Amino acid sequence: MSTPARSKNAGPAQGEPLGLTIDNVRKVYASRGRETFEAVKGMNMDIRPGELISLLGPSGCGKTTTLRMIAGLETVTSGDIRIGDTRINDLPPGKRNVGVGFESYALYPPLNIKENLAYGLKARKEPNADEQAEAIAKRLDMEDLLPMRPASLSSGQKQRVALARALIRKPPVLLLDEPLGHLDASARQRVRRELKLLQREFGYTTIVVTHDQLEAMSLSDRIAVMNGGIIQQFDTPDEIFDNPANLFVADFVGEPSINLFDGEAVVRDGKVFAKVGEGMVETTVESATNGQKVTVGIRPSDCRTGVESGLVSDVVVFEDLLEFGQASVEVRGTAKRALVQTPAEEKYEPGDTVVFAAPPARVYLFNAESGDRVR
Ligand SMILES: Nc1ncnc2c1ncn2[C@@H]1O[C@H](COP(=O)(O)OP(=O)(O)OP(=O)(O)O)[C@@H](O)[C@H]1O
């Protein structure tokens, strides 16, 4: 793979980006020799050189544990982690060629931020260390922090410094744990864009841990959605959203959340319909059997009103959001509320009846017991 063009100010890269392979990796935490908790349960990932991937999942799903194992801050119970062709399981953190942007990573208190940023470069006798520190600070919108001492920084500022410090070292593999978590909304967007640009320019292979799906969607080439120590799906953002592997992924990704109903597959004339309450919607599913119990998923943004047949519902609340409307409805024959996004020109009152469906390819069926997608 070719390396993207580098900016003049940033200096030469320390090394070419390398791929990262995680092969059947497990992490069992133990205390006094007794196994206490299996945080990562047989994880596999093949990350290409220069790729940016996110580990996305709810609190406790094993994201940070995975990152810490790659960084060498946590032992690997079994399985292999390789950077390029080198197995790194037993290498000390400093020998792994991995850059970490953990916020808690110590800065040198007596040095100001500019000196902190330039320190590692100077130690490696890189030319223009100060200029590089200034350039990266400018890119991350933090030039005002350069003369400050670490002790006087807020948590959001510390986070930016940690990110700058990780980026300036140009490691072949870069690990970032919630890199934008403490930033306010507007700084978050700016730094996010800049992070993506810098990552593209330098071509670092990058793993970002986040529980923020928008961050994962906007930054990543691929996302690993995790739950309970297991990767549920490892795919491009579009595929994760459009083609969820299971109920967990469908429910975790998407804002507002997907509508989920208990339903039944109805096979008629070779077509599969989803029966929900009093209504039915067509699907493109092929493998369901007639009468099969399923969970039916329809995203609010996929709902189409003004259809002849579909799910029959009564409006409870209607919000006019200018560019579109959002009706909270009770679907007849179910005990469930659903959210239906409607065209801007349609207005509803509580008590109005709405019949809605979705394009057949956007009606998802999941096995009612396992949650696996029925395709
Ligand atoms: N040292 C430890 N000993 C025992 N269990 C641990 C230890 N560290 C983490 N765990 C447990 O392992 C699981 C995964 O933790 P981890 O920090 O990797 O999750 P996470 O997905 O990063 O969550 P968060 O977003 O809250 O940081 C959690 O249930 C946690 O309680």
List keywords for this structure.
375 residues; alpha+beta; Rossmann fold; OB fold (Dihydrolipoamide Acetyltransferase, E2P); 2 domains; six-stranded antiparallel β-sheet; 8 helices; 22% helix; disordered N terminus; binds adenosine-5'-triphosphate
Question: How would you describe this structure to a colleague?
Answer:
The chain is of the alpha+beta class and 375 residues long. The chain has two domains: 20-247, Rossmann fold, CATH 3.40.50.300; 257-374, Beta Barrel (OB fold (Dihydrolipoamide Acetyltransferase, E2P)), CATH 2.40.50.140. The chain is 22% helix and 34% strand. The chain contains eight helices and 21 strands. The protein has helices spanning 63-71, 113-123, 129-139, 155-168, 185-202, 213-219, 237-242, 247-252, and strands at residues 20-31, 34-47, 52-56, 78-83, 86-87, 98-100, 173-177, 205-210, 222-227, 230-235, 259-268, 271-276, 279-282, 293-298, 304-305, 311-320, 324-331, 337-343, 353-357, 364-367, 373-374. The strands form four sheets. Strands 6-7-8-3-9-10 form a six-stranded mixed sheet, with helices on both faces. A hairpin with a 5-residue loop joins β20 (364-367) and β21 (373-374). The two termini are 35 Å apart. Mean pLDDT is 91; it is low at 1-13. The protein binds adenosine-5'-triphosphate. Adenosine-5'-triphosphate is lined by residues 29, 36-37, 39, 57, 59-65, 211.
